[in-house]
């Protein structure tokens, strides 16, 4: 049996792992978009082998099945391209993952379509050359529909037979509604081998979501390491952190709070927390705007899957009949309504995507308020280097937004209390459910290279000595 690491290797994005049995049954675990195509986080150029033609470093048509841990684009974003390259099999995931993946991929396809349309109108030779290249890389709605037609929803904690001598189990991972750890059992030559894929590991006591469940004993563990070298900074509850910010920014002064937030997962946690503040702590009814059509649709998926949320959320729903709707809350569905919020002159909270303040409607809100000393911008997620969010966090005195240089007079704050990733202690706790005596190898993926190296050392101190940090394209015999 062979395992090849085609993504999230010495970098965070692009999760994609190929498992091949001796009978040549080929399983692709995740098929994510790579946000860092030139180099990994260790600064080394990507030297993985490529086919002469095609999007993937393998023949898509030879894959037998795709297993998807969760909906985020860095895990699902290249599934439509897999079908376009000739894949004809099924995608297995939980039912909420199917619904959220469909929304995210349709949103990405719409952006791709607009981008290609704008470039196609250009008469510049350089733009036209790039346009031809991108046509090969960017999927459209047709490919998304084809992909979603082949999804098979799988229940948690129920063994599913993939092929003779191969089965899979999806285990709740926290992190995002529907997210899963995946355990594959392969029976070869009278021997059973178990391979576990962590997906993204959630944190305990996160709003709405159940805690990540432990993985049963496996022989090989592929483990994410996003927070492998650090702990969460904020140790207070989301309610107390958000209450403090709102009091300082919208109650003590008549100010405006802008919260850039990813539409799937993060926004739902925010709205639920705000709802609890208003109903349980007597906060004044400050106007709250959610400015993301994708967030609206994602929230409907959360509402539909109430039974899969944590006990606290279900009890709150039983008492209040709503998780996300409260007094003075409004969804902004149209672009016109989004623009008109700039004219709202009372204290308010604006939640809008994207979380990195790069593109999306939030960029116009930041542009309109960046020089307003009564505005606070609260960053609640990871911001990749070079994004507008990253530049704001680095304290630049002026910011260029849409080719216009603006002085930064608004306050910029950050919190990681809404991060859906478990920190170093959570990751260690997850791994320690395994036996160092049985576990033959741990492979660290989905993290910056320094984070992986630090986590490798931490695990070795805990008695796990067989820890590998695979490079992209590296293959192992299991």
TrEMBL record:
<dbReference type="Pfam" id="PF16661">
    <property type="entry name" value="Lactamase_B_6"/>
</dbReference>
<dbReference type="Pfam" id="PF07521">
    <property type="entry name" value="RMMBL"/>
</dbReference>
<dbReference type="Pfam" id="PF10996">
    <property type="entry name" value="Beta-Casp"/>
</dbReference>
<dbReference type="GO" id="GO:0004521">
    <property type="term" value="F:RNA endonuclease activity"/>
</dbReference>
<dbReference type="InterPro" id="IPR050698">
    <property type="entry name" value="MBL"/>
</dbReference>
<dbReference type="InterPro" id="IPR036866">
    <property type="entry name" value="RibonucZ/Hydroxyglut_hydro"/>
</dbReference>
<dbReference type="InterPro" id="IPR011108">
    <property type="entry name" value="RMMBL"/>
</dbReference>
<protein>
    <submittedName>
        <fullName>Metallo-beta-lactamase family protein</fullName>
    </submittedName>
</protein>
<dbReference type="GO" id="GO:0016787">
    <property type="term" value="F:hydrolase activity"/>
</dbReference>
<feature type="domain" description="Beta-Casp">
    <location>
        <begin position="267"/>
        <end position="392"/>
    </location>
</feature>
<dbReference type="InterPro" id="IPR022712">
    <property type="entry name" value="Beta_Casp"/>
</dbReference>
<dbReference type="InterPro" id="IPR001279">
    <property type="entry name" value="Metallo-B-lactamas"/>
</dbReference>
<keyword id="KW-0378">Hydrolase</keyword>
<feature type="domain" description="Metallo-beta-lactamase">
    <location>
        <begin position="13"/>
        <end position="262"/>
    </location>
</feature>
């Amino acid at each position: 049996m062979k395992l090849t690491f085609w993504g999230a290797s010495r970098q965070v994005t692009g999760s994609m792992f190929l498992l091949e049995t001796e009978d040549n049954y080929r399983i692709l675990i995740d098929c994510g978009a790579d946000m860092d195509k030139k180099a990994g986080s260790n600064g080394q150029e990507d030297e993985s082998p490529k086919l002469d033609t095609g999007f993937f470093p393998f023949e898509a048509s030879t894959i037998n099945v795709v297993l998807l841990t969760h909906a985020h684009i860095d895990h699902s974003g290249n599934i439509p391209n897999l079908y376009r390259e000739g894949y004809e099999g099924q995608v297995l995931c939980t039912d909420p993952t199917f619904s959220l993946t469909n929304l995210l991929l349709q949103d990405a396809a719409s952006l791709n379509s607009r981008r290609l349309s704008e470039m196609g109108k250009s008469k510049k030779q350089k733009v036209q050359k790039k346009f031809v290249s991108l046509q090969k890389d960017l999927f459209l709605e047709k490919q998304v529909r084809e992909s979603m037609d082949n999804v098979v929803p799988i229940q948690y904690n129920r063994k599913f037979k993939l092929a003779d001598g191969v089965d899979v189990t999806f285990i709740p991972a926290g992190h995002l509604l529907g997210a899963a750890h995946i355990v594959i059992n392969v029976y070869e030559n009278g021997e059973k081998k178990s391979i576990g894929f962590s997906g993204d590991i959630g944190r305990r006591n996160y709003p709405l979501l159940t805690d990540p469940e432990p993985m049963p004993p496996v022989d090989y563990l592929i483990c994410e390491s996003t927070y492998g070298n650090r702990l969460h900074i904020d140790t207070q509850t989301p309610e107390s952190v958000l209450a403090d910010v709102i009091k300082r920014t919208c109650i003590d002064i008549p100010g405006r709070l802008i919260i850039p937030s990813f539409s799937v997962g993060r926004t739902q946690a925010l709205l639920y927390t705000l709802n609890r503040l208003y109903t349980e702590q007597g906060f004044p009814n400050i106007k709250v705007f959610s400015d993301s059509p994708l967030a609206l649709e994602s929230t409907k998926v959360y509402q539909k899957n109430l039974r899969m949320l944590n006990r606290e959320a279900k009890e709150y729903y039983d008492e209040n009949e709503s998780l996300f709707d409260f007094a003075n809350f409004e969804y902004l569905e149209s672009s016109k309504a989004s623009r008109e919020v700039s004219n709202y002159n009372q204290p308010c909270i604006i939640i809008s995507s994207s979380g990195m303040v790069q593109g999306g409607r939030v960029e116009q809100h930041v542009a309109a308020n960046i020089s307003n000393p009564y505005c606070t911008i609260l960053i609640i997620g990871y911001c990749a280097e070079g994004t507008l969010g990253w530049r704001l966090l680095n304290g630049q005195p002026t910011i260029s937004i849409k080719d216009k240089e603006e002085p930064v007079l608004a306050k910029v704050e950050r919190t990681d209390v809404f991060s859906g990733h478990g920190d170093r202690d959570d990751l260690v706790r997850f791994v320690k459910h395994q036996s160092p005596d049985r576990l033959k190898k741990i492979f660290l993926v989905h993290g910056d290279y320094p984070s992986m190296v630090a986590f490798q050392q931490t695990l070795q101190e805990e008695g796990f000595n067989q820890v590998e940090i695979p490079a992209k394209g590296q293959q192992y015999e299991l």
